């Protein structure tokens, strides 16, 4: 399997090189040169597999000999052995038409663990095989940082620096990152918002000489391995929800800010998974909802919400979807992204908008509606949603139709967002690993939001 850039100026490369490149050297995002097609017979066979077995089969399609199968199997098995639930991503039924896909049973209680446990092990494997140095640089709106750090902390040949917006993540998210006292970990708390952190990362990676000189590698969802790992749980959850009925209408409602999680669902559907609807759930930072409804992609006013991991205006994975929307025309994508950099907006024609609206439903959830959804499901179903999952559930309630089964992606354990839960007078007990964080010292540096300040920190660390 080869990987190419959405902007068409990078020669085709293999899976391992694509993982190491992260952001394509021409500024685009890497995608498989051909999306594998999965037949109905293969789906029937996969339905009987465990999560790790299913992950191995799906990864094999995209790795295609770049990593020996026995090595790939060990990477997969080691990655998901760290999860607290034997199913890895269990599906919990809330009522006749709605289930939640619990993606928070990994080490840091967030869905990012599913990809980053694998990517951390993969980077370690590559470092050993190539006898190479790996310097990981990433930005987080809350969960990616902790999951990435957990995936590589203490591993020989790897250093990791994570940027997070100062004061704009939950306390538990902050503690999960900043209480790690390993020498190969640097936390930078950036004065600004997540979009500032993400911009710095993209601009540093776009400096190809700098990236190569300092062995920079990506941990954010710009890395194609992140997306591929996330496609697995769409297949796994579909099999649980459809229960062997080929006529079942199974929707997925996905809380998203960076477009990575829902793009993984879109990729699974293009592979042949018979998904009925992909519902895109946003919060008040609803640039993606506006795009689906109006065909205009334009950052608006930034809002701090109860679902801070979705407080994002510029979605880093959006370009991957545009590439397929425009028929894999890299020249068209280059022109669109150049225009976005110049004018700050993308407007698509009516025929493209019809395609978008066939691919996705979208709903933006207000802060009050988010809290009300948490309260009502706790009262009526005895199930506690975190604020991001609540956005997905609220969107499902709005957009799902009779006769459909919807799986809402539950992206984090509610203990990570107790500030919001307490606002509706719900008390919860922290899991022991989270409770223990409050007694540990924090290690972080507060820095300004300029490329120069971040570069200075990186040079002294790497």
TrEMBL record:
Family of this protein: Belongs to the threonine synthase family.
A Pfam entry, by short name: Thr_synth_N
Organism placement in taxonomy: Bacteria, Bacillati, Bacillota, Bacilli, Bacillales
Cofactor(s) named in the record: pyridoxal 5'-phosphate
Record protein name field: Threonine synthase
Coiled-coil intervals: none
Domain (Threonine synthase N-terminal): residue spans on this chain: 3-80
InterPro entries on file: Thr_synth_N, Thr_synth_N_sf, Thr_synthase-like, Threonine_Synthase, TrpB-like_PALP, TrpB-like_PALP_sf
Organism: Cohnella faecalis
Keyword match Lyase: yes
GO BP term, pick one: threonine biosynthetic process
Keywords associated with the record: Lyase, Pyridoxal phosphate
């Amino acid at each position: 399997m080869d990987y190419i850039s959405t902007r068409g100026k990078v020669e085709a490369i293999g899976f391992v090189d694509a993982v190491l490149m992260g952001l394509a050297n021409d500024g685009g995002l890497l995608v498989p040169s051909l999306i594998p097609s999965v037949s109905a017979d293969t789906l029937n066979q996969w339905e009987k597999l465990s999560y790790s077995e299913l992950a191995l089969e799906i990864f094999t399609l995209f790795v295609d000999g770049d990593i020996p199968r026995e090595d790939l199997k060990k990477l997969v098995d080691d990655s998901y052995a760290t999860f607290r639930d034997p199913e890895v991503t269990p599906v919990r039924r809330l009522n006749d038409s709605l289930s939640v896909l619990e993606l928070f049973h990994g080490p840091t209680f967030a869905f990012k663990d599913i990809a980053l446990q694998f990517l951390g092990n993969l980077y370690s494997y590559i470092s050993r095989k190539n006898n190479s140095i790996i310097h990981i640089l990433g930005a987080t709106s809350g969960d990616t940082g902790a999951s990435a750090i957990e995936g590589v902390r203490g591993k020989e040949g790897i250093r990791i620096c994570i940027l997070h917006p100062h004061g704009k993540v939950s306390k538990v998210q902050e503690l999960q990152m900043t209480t790690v006292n390993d020498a190969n970990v640097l936390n930078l708390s950036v004065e600004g918002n997540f979009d500032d952190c993400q911009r710095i990362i993209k601009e540093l990676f776009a400096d190809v000489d700098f990236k190569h000189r300092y062995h920079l590698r990506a941990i954010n969802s710009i890395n194609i391995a992140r997306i591929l790992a996330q496609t697995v749980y769409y297949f796994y959850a579909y099999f649980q929800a459809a229960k062997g009925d080929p006529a079942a209408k199974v929707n997925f409602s996905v809380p998203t800010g960076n477009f990575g999680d829902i793009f993984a669902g879109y990729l699974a559907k293009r592979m042949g998974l018979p998904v009925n609807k992909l519902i895109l759930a946003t919060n008040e930072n609803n640039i993606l909802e506006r795009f689906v409804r109006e065909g205009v992609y334009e950052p608006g006013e930034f809002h701090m919400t109860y679902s801070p991991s979705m407080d994002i205006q510029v979605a880093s994975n959006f370009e991957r979807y545009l590439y397929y929307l425009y028929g894999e025309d890299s020249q068209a994508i280059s022109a669109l992204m150049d225009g976005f950099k110049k004018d700050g907006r993308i407007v698509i024609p009516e025929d493209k908008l019809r395609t978008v609206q066939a691919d996705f439903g979208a709903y933006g959830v207000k802060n009050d509606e988010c809290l009300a959804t948490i309260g009502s499901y706790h009262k009526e179903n005895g199930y506690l949603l975190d604020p991001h999952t609540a956005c997905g559930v609220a969107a499902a309630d709005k957009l799902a139709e009779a006769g459909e089964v919807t799986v809402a992606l539950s992206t984090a354990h509610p203990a990570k967002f107790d500030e919001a839960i307490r606002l509706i007078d719900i008390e919860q007990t922290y899991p022991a690993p989270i409770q223990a964080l409050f007694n540990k010292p924090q290690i972080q540096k507060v820095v300004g939001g300029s490329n120069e300040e971040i570069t200075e920190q990186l040079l002294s660390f790497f």
